[in-house]
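Shipment paperwork, digital attachment
Item: protein structure file
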Amino acid sequence: MTATANDQKTGRAVGGEELFQSLAHFVVTHNGQTPERAERIADQALAFVVTAATATVPMVPSDDVDLGLHALILHTKEYAGLCEQYAGRFLHHNPKPGGGARDPEKVAASARAMKTAGFLVFDDLWTVNGTNLAQCDSDCGRPYGQD
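Attachment content:
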């Protein structure tokens, strides 16, 4: 069963308004995004972390969502609190050694995992090299949060 937009959770709701606004402001200020786009990026970053806490697939953010994820990680106290609340442990940032391109299959799997977890996913933020990877129903680097 596919959830309707009214049934779906948002990152904004799970992170709280104060943290959400701070993340969006950070993304505007440091990444040059419009306020509207920054809010969507912040929402997806929060939803990503909550999903990563219990995901059974390797979680890899898109380039856009990674902007919000880095902003969230820099909010160390709030980030640690979210990790403890949803994962029961700290989720370490785990970048791919030496950088390199994101694995499109893992990015797509991450968007699907968020949808399966009941989160509203902004498909247009889930792209790699201009290819949209999130346009699917909810059943349709290295894993985030592992040591």
